[in-house]
Known about the structure:
Elements: E1 3-7, E2 11-16, H1 27-42, E3 46-51, H2 62-67, H3 70-75, H4 77-86, E4 92-96, E5 99-101, H5 103-109, E6 113-116, E7 121-123, H6 137-145, H7 147-156, E8 159-161, H8 162-167, H9 180-192, H10 196-207, H11 215-225, H12 228-243
Parallel strand pairs: 2-3, 3-4, 4-6, 5-7
Antiparallel strand pairs: 1-2, 7-8
Amino acid sequence: MTxxxxxxxxxxxxxxDRPEKRNAIDQETIDAxxxxxxxxxxxxxVLILTGSDGxxxxxxxxxxxxxxxxxxxxRGINATAFIRVSELPMPVIAALDGWALGGGAELAYAADIRxxxxxxxxxxxxxxxxxxxxxxxxxxxxEIVGQARASELLLTGRLLDADEALAWGLVSALHPSxxxxxxxxxxxxxxxxxxxLATRHTKRALRAPxxxxxxxxxxxxxxxxxxxxxxxxxxxxxxxxxRR
Length: 244
């Protein structure tokens, strides 16, 4: 089992678990991600992605990549799975420790929120291996850190340390390794305290192309304005304020 799953009522923790290969992402991991996504599409919950033994993922499995053909490239094996992760209805939190390289970095880029540890090293050294970062980095990374910084990382293949990743906005916070998963759960707690439908609609609006704004907000807000949960939460808020 290369992806260890722990289910809770409001969240799922998925741990990349190939410690002997530094959690390198192989075909079995990709297949397991598809199974996980099917579970979360059917019953939406917050997803926390992390890695075992102080490593997120040291890349895609190079032995498997070496044998892939042009037809395999056109199938977008890793990219398809990472797109599915990105498009999950509820937020995805990536908790990154140690190496997050190549395909591991691209899986992290697919998350909505990324946090790390001081040991984090993240980047895309693919061009040094004679390939490009084709599982989302060339379009997700510019959206996260800007075109100039994304170009530098992808064209040079250099890695960012934890402080650089934080300064560039690639992660939003750093925590000691021992506290990383607790910090991810604290973020999930805050998300799960909110209205799930409002959270899902906020994620949809955040991910929508610029051309769809502001119309998409108007339609999503109209649905929320008709929601009994909106009335209940606002009534509770007003009653609490009146008691102060």
